[in-house]
Amino acid sequence: MRALVAGVGNVFLGDDGFGVAVARHLAATGVPEGVEVGDYGIRGIHLAYELTSGYDLAILVDAVPAGRAPGTLCVLEPASPEPAPAFVDAHAMTPDAVLTLASGLDLPRGDRGGRVLLVGCEPADVSPGMDLSPPVAAAVPEAAGLVLELIAKEFAEGERQW
């Protein structure tokens, strides 16, 4: 099985760089064989094309404001996207927009890709600056552990299906 962990967000907007921080943490500490970790930052179009590379699992990691306490983690499974529009604004590539674009691209395996999960963290401050707030910075190792747990669970279930 193959998995992609994609850290997304803008490192110049404080806690919006959470996904990138988690990707960097995982790259430094190591991941299981078959797992690729990428710092996609604000390169949503690049990520959309990468999602068409036949991964069995893709985990996007990002700041997800939802009114919870800063640093709170969540796991979401995005709904299947609607077909991609004819025009995509490269400056508005949220995870939903990335998945919509990827759904409209031709996949080499002729399928629509594997399972996609989003590991999110409630931001405290997304104003200009390159530092994560203390609660969000503290959530980085916890989120990395959560990502590894999700991968282990998915790979274990995938092994039973093979």
Terminus-to-terminus distance: 10 Å
Order of helices and strands: EHEHEEHEH
Which CATH architecture?
Answer: 3-Layer(aba) Sandwich
Largest sheet: 5 strands, mixed
Fill in the CATH topology: Rossmann fold
Q: Compute the gyration radius: what is it?
A: 15 Å
Task: Count every beta strand, where a strand is a DSSP E run of 2 or more residues.
Answer: 5
Q: In what range is the share of β-strand residues?
A: 15-25%
The helix content is 25-40%
Number of helices: 4
Regions with little confidence, pLDDT below 50 for 5+ residues: 107-112
Structural class by helix and strand composition: alpha/beta
What global shape is seen? globular
Integer tally of domains: 1
Which CATH top level class fits? Alpha Beta
Mean pLDDT: 85
CATH superfamily grouping = HybD-like
**Spatial ordering of strands, largest sheet:** 2-1-3-5-4
Q: What descriptive keywords fit this protein?
A:
single chain, 162 residues, alpha/beta, Rossmann fold, five-stranded mixed β-sheet, 35% helix, 19% strand, globular
Q: What this model shows, in words?
A:
The longest helix has 28 residues, at 134-161. This protein is α/β, with parallel strands linked by helices. It has helices at 18-29, 44-50, 95-103, 134-161, and strands at residues 3-8, 35-41, 57-63, 73-76, 115-121. The model is unreliable at 107-112 (pLDDT under 50). It is 35% helix and 19% strand. The chain has four helices and five strands. The protein has a five-stranded mixed β-sheet, sandwiched between helices. The chain has a single domain, classed as Rossmann fold.
